[in-house]
Design a protein that fits this description.
about 450 residues; mainly alpha; about 70% helix
Length: about 450
């Protein structure tokens, strides 16, 4: 009992301090839990920390809705209970520990050299890694493309597809050489130059239109306009500077018929074939017509007229392009799919192989028609039969196997088949003197018949 009485004054003092604190903070409504705690205060030992917690956490009733709020923790208040201070303060003693000197062992020269090598190799690897990171960071950044005058001829050559242009000029030269007229060197040079300029203009405009599609293809992603080596304005200016003089040269320097054919070919290649590549597989037939016009231009440049021989040369070039291009496109089906081009090899693979075989067989028939039209002798179909049969055999294998190996063999065969066929055709050409003598004989016989009929 005496111990309980001794503890009662501090308990009453704690409860009084708690109630006085709540009144000072503006709390008018005290929850029932606090009242119960006051009743129990005499029976239980309530610490000051617990009262301090209850001071921060409380429940208020507003509009018959209960909500719990947490008041920010106030600054630490000095405890009303003065704790006993320790009279005997502990003394802090700092002991100094002397450092122990390391034991140095003598190193051999081999170990020193090995350590130096390791340090050098580590420095080199760090330098190489830093260089690779800097290079990769530089590749990710935009760079300004500066055009050097020394690089301009090569860029323009790739813009104009110089290899394709050389093939076009060679076929036009073959048409000029096969014409049954005396050879005129000046007209030949003007026709070749005009045809080459027209081809450069058409190829440049074609690349200008196909920049967003060429960037998706591995075969064309390194073209000058795709890489930004030249501006589109410069490409258009280059095409105009080639096309206008080329057509003018063909029209004024050769004849108007050849100039009209050159202008029509540029229009057909840029405005018909180029957009049709993303619309229909008929673009292959339109492109074959584009490739068949240059030998016709060579013939008209020499003769000034559109004869059966010109149509025969155009037909040979027309049929030759199907095994050539279909075999090429077969190995580039993935590229054409990514570029969004509608090709036979992608959408109609069976038709692609059948058309290639069909036109290889057509080359045999066209070679037979040449002596009938009095363009070559009868030795031409006989000499050209082996190479025509060989390319037809490869086309049949491509039709049967339908793999990359057979398509590659057919494509490479087409590269040497055309110049070989044109060369054999030129060697078997009927000379102009033979035709002139035959014409004279026909004229004389016709005159004699007229004389006999006259009284």
């Amino acid at each position: 009992m005496s111990a309980a009485r001794r503890c009662s004054p501090p308990r009453a003092l704690a409860v009084g301090l708690f109630v006085w604190r709540l009144k000072n903070t503006g709390i008018r409504q005290v929850p029932c839990q606090f009242v119960q705690l006051c009743h129990v205060a005499n029976d239980r030992l309530i610490t000051f920390q617990y009262f301090n917690f209850l001071k921060r956490m409380y429940v208020t009733q507003c509009n018959k809705d209960f909500s719990q709020r947490a008041k920010p923790k106030s600054d630490s208040v000095a405890s009303p209970f003065h704790e006993l201070q320790q009279l005997d303060q502990e003394k802090k003693v700092i002991h100094k520990i002397r450092p122990i000197s390391p034991v140095h062992q003598p190193l051999s020269e081999a170990s020193i050299s090995s350590e130096l090598r390791e340090m050098k190799s580590a420095a080199q690897t760090e330098g190489s890694v830093a260089a690779v990171r800097a290079e990769a960071k530089g590749d990710r950044q935009w760079k300004e493309m500066k055009l050097q005058l020394d690089d301009l001829p090569g860029i323009l050559a790739r813009l104009s597809k110089i290899k394709l242009t050389a093939l076009v000029v060679s076929t036009a030269s073959a048409g000029f050489a096969m014409a049954p007229v005396p050879f005129d060197l000046t007209c030949f040079l003007l026709a070749s130059l005009g045809t080459g300029l027209a081809s450069c203009a058409a190829n440049s405009i074609n690349q200008f239109f196909e920049v967003p599609f060429d960037s998706n293809m591995n075969r064309t992603k390194n073209r000058p306009l795709v890489r930004g080596q030249i501006s589109p304005l410069l490409a258009v200016c280059f095409a105009a500077s080639c096309g206008v003089p080329g057509i003018a040269l063909l029209t004024l320097g050769v004849n108007p018929l050849t100039g009209a054919l050159g202008a029509f070919n540029i229009f057909l290649y840029t405005c018909c074939y180029t957009p049709m590549k993303r619309m229909s597989i008929a673009n292959t037939w339109v492109g074959a017509v584009v490739g068949a016009i240059p030998p016709v231009m060579g013939w008209t440049a020499a003769t000034g007229s559109l004869d059966a021989g010109a149509l025969l040369l155009g037909g040979i070039l027309y049929s030759w392009q199907f095994p050539h291009f279909n075999a090429l496109s077969w190995g580039l089906r993935e590229d054409y799919s990514r570029g969004g081009y509608c090709m036979m090899s992608v959408t109609h693979p069976g038709l692609c192989r059948r058309v290639a075989l069909r036109h290889c067989l057509a080359l045999i028939g066209l070679s037979t028609v040449a002596p009938v039209l009095d363009i070559t002798t009868w030795t031409f179909p006989i000499i050209s039969l082996p190479i025509n049969l060989y390319i037809s055999y490869l086309a049949f294998r491509f039709y049967r196997d339908a793999d990359r190996s057979s398509s590659r063999k057919l494509f490479f065969c087409s590269l040497w088949h055309l110049p070989m066929l044109l060369l054999v055709m030129f060697t078997c050409k009927k000379s102009f003197l033979e035709k002139e003598d035959k014409g004279d004989l026909l004229g004389e016989s016709h005159g004699r018949v007229m004389e006999i009929r006259l009284p």
